[in-house]
Amino acid sequence: MVNSAVERLNEFQAGNSAVTKGLLSLLVQLTGLVRSKSFPLNPDDFLTENKGQVAGLGGANLKKILKKHGITQVLASEGGRTSRGNIGLMIKYVQFLNAWQASEPIEFDAR
């Protein structure tokens, strides 16, 4: 049986110990960034010019995404921009999404 979107995401989160505010912020924002991209995704497309951070992350962006889903609490003030391990987790998440998309289309709005 194919796992639901929630099950897949929960397994990824648990398997990568993505439980801190910064790492959760990365996953929320990266999901928003990949929605408009073509697959397969290239992890290099999500790095800043100097390759030291994941591009497009920030507290304001995170707040906007959460507000869109009716969440008004602050998850992280910097939105995962400065969290250690972000680049490694981003690469794993991109690989995860590529594998998922290869097996079945990802429905980003599924609940």
How would you describe this protein?
The protein has helices spanning 5-15, 21-34, 59-68, 86-103. The longest helix is centred in the C-terminal third of the chain and has 18 residues, at 86-103. The protein has one domain (5-103). The chain is mainly α and 111 residues long. The model has no long low-confidence stretch (mean pLDDT 86).
How would you concisely characterize the structure shown here?
This protein is an all-alpha fold.
Protein traits:
111 residues, mainly alpha, 4 helices, 0% strand
> What proportion of the residues is helical, as a percent range?
40-55%
| Mean of all residue-level pLDDT scores | 86
Tally of strands: 0
Largest sheet: none
**Percent of sequence in beta strands:** under 5%
Count of helix runs: 4
SSE string: HHHH
Low-confidence stretches: none
Write the layout of secondary structure elements.
Layout: H1 5-15, H2 21-34, H3 59-68, H4 86-103
Helix pairs in contact: 2-4
